[in-house]
Design brief:
Elements lengths: L1 E2 L2 H17 L6 E7 L3 H17 L2 E7 L5 H12 L6 E4 L9 H6 L12 H9 L8 H12 L8 E5 L6 H10 L3 E5 L6 H6 L3 E4 L17 E4 L3 E2 L5 H4 L5 E2 L4 H4 L5 E2 L6 H27 L1
Helix pairs in contact: 1-11, 6-7, 6-11
The structure holds nicotinamide-adenine-dinucleotide.
Nicotinamide-adenine-dinucleotide binds next to helix 11.
């Protein structure tokens, strides 16, 4: 079985990003807005700051208390929208329940929407428009497949999960790459039978061990997007440690499928890299716009 090593794929991308950043007129800058103190979010933000520092992108972390008002968050986004030195903005999700996620996300200017979650960007993404800012995980999945020579073109791709941030963008990206895409979800009947027909199976359900050998066959490539804490482990002790697991029951599929991505070390490292790829893309676009105005 082939292991789809996301760290190896990420390193090749990282070198390419660093080359491009070295040739940028402006130093790319990302603003991360956090509301509250979720341990999981803290760890994701740490990873983003670390990667940004490694590749030469400035990262500003605006950290509000959980009790912050929607207006305060939107005001900080508007300020970042109008600052020419800032090229990308993300709001770390999930937000505390008292805040309206959609209102907050929509206040990000689409030209600075590094997560690709504004309605303007979602529309461009489904149109297959090259200007679209595509959510990083979806780009990571496509890159990992390409890196190992598994082109999605003409293939039956089955995705488990239909979220706005993960499942749907993966579907949009692979559809634009000429795959035949089926999206499964918690109400899908015969999930096992549908998945077993897939040439490429992508699991983004967030259910540890969901995909076992009954979902697979000898010519199937499996990309495991899930990041879950192994049962019985405490989140604060185990997140990003050795007890992270994906949606795939590795022991069960390893002797059946042709290729599988591991967790950790699969799609996760690529997600961080493609977030910065988006920031770079927005920095380059801003430079083009300002040279047109000059
Ligand atoms: P979500 O909870 O918003 O969506 C989960 C989706 O899976 C839903 O559409 C639901 O219908 C479907 N689902 C859940 N249980 C199912 C079942 N038993 N059978 C069929 N479908 C089922 O979650 P999300 O934000 O889309 O994230 C999904 C997973 O991906 C999580 O584990 C998350 O941590 C992980 N994730 C990984 C990365 C990465 O970089 N690897 C990035 C983002 C999210």
């Amino acid at each position: 079985m082939i292991i789809l090593d996301g760290k190896k794929a990420r390193d090749s991308l990282k070198a390419n990003l660093m080359d491009k950043i070295a040739n940028c007129i402006d130093r790319p800058k990302l603003v991360i807005i956090q509301c509250g103190d979720k341990e999981e979010s803290n760890k994701y933000i740490q990873q983003k700051k670390k990667f940004g520092a490694e590749i030469g992108v400035e990262v500003e972390h605006i950290h509000f208390l959980r009790s912050v008002s929607e207006k305060e968050v939107i005001d900080s986004i508007k300020k970042a929208n109008s600052d020419d030195k800032i090229h990308g903005i993300i709001v770390q999700l999930p937000l505390p329940p008292n805040l309206d996620k959609d209102e907050i996300i929509e206040s990000i200017h689409p030209e600075k929407d590094a997560d690709g979650l504004t309605s303007a960007n979602i529309k461009l993404m489904w149109q297959g428009n090259e200007e679209a800012m595509i959510p990083a995980t979806a780009q990571g999945v496509a890159f990992l497949l390409d890196f190992y020579g598994f082109s999605p073109e003409g293939k039956n791709v089955v995705i488990i999960g239909r979220s706005e941030l993960v499942g749907k963008p993966i579907a949009a990206v692979l559809l634009s790459r000429n795959a035949t895409v089926t999206i499964c979800h918690s109400k899908t009947q015969d999930l096992v039978g549908t998945c077993r027909k897939a040439d490429i199976l992508i699991s983004a359900a967030g259910v540890p061990g969901l995909v076992d050998e009954s979902y697979s066959h000898a010519n199937q490539v499996i990309v495991d997007v899930g990041i879950n804490i192994a049962r019985g482990k405490k989140l604060e002790e185990e997140i990003f440690g050795k007890h992270l697991v994906g949606d795939v029951n590795w022991e069960s599929v390893r002797n059946v499928a042709k290729a599988v991505s591991p967790v950790p070390g699969g799609v996760g490292p690529l997600t961080v890299a493609f977030l910065f790829g988006n920031v770079l893309k927005m920095c380059e676009a801003a430079a083009r716009r300002s040279s047109l105005r000059a």
